[in-house]
Design a protein that fits this description.
The protein is an all-alpha fold. It has helices at residues 2-22, 29-49, 55-78, 84-103. Its main location: membrane.
Amino acid sequence: MAWIMLLVAGIFEVVWAYAMKQSEGFSRLWPTVVTLVAMAASFVLLAAAMRTIPLGTAYTIWTGIGAVGAFVVGITLLGEQVNLTRVIAAVLIVCGLVLMKLANH
């Protein structure tokens, strides 16, 4: 269950990052509200997951999901640039997340 909470916490991290971008510096009400709610949900789920999962593992996976998720959202929804270097960086992050999960066994 802790791993599911951590995954959902990471997804909420992507949601709040995207909503923060849409809030235009917290000047738009609803994206700002979504940002704050998603942040709270992300932190609560991360804290709950950390009851079972070690800090280093949980935090690394949480931030990795956020980083790769924000990268994908940036490309797919915001039209951000795609190039080989950025894709390789994202792949390396995913590889690190897989290794971190495997190392936790």
